[in-house]
Amino acid sequence: MTQTHSRATLAAATRTTLLVPVDVDAAADPASMLTALHERVERQFALYDDADGGPAEQHRAVTAIAAALATHVALEDELLYPAVRAHTGRHDREIERQLEQDHLLDLLMVELSGMIPSDPRYDAKVRVLMQAFRQHARDAETLLIPELRRQLDPAERELLGRRLLERIGQLERRPRPGW
């Protein structure tokens, strides 16, 4: 990838873009939205991996990761986990573990926000963040997706999906301090 192409790709991908899909009715499925949130974070990780233009490009990529993770964590913590918990108590321990993984992701992002890409530990911390997120995503998809589909009836899933879309709109329009 040329440096010019890489910068153009990164600039296009890090612009504020909403996760709200064009066909809102078709996307109101919370399980599909959770998968889309995970894929979105993975796309931001790919931008970091492709950031061969130096520290400024790496910083922009981490800023995009932070934005995607902030939305992801808020949606899980505020809406998805409570929805599962409201229908079944049998996963409380797993939900608590997922909440702690979200907290770990937040802590890693706070630490990264206080670092510069030339810091010798910067890349290592980003890689740990990627690893922690990937484990979290696998765990969330193993727990949440089947439970959302099994425990919520179609009307409840649609309502939760619409609440997720509304919250995404709120979060994506909010400036993120420090980034």
- Measured as a percent range, the helix fraction is over 70%
The number of distinct helices, counting runs of at least 4 residues, comes to 6
Instruction: Specify the overall morphology.
Output: elongated
Count the beta strands. Answer: 0
SSE order:
HHHHHH
Question: Beta-sheet strand percentage?
Answer: under 5%
Largest sheet: none
Note the gap between the termini. 26 Å
Multimeric state: single chain
Quickly count the domains: 1
Overall average pLDDT: 82
Which structural class fits the helix and strand makeup? mainly alpha
Uncertain runs with pLDDT below 50, 5 residues or more?
Answer: 1-26
Ordered list of secondary-structure elements with their pairings:
Elements: H1 3-14, H2 30-49, H3 55-87, H4 92-113, H5 122-151, H6 154-173
Overview of the molecule:
With 179 residues, the protein is mainly alpha-helical. The protein has one domain. It is built from six helices and no strands. The protein has helices spanning 3-14, 30-49, 55-87, 92-113, 122-151, 154-173. Helix 2 (30-49) runs antiparallel to helix 3 and helix 3 (55-87) packs antiparallel against helix 4 (92-113).
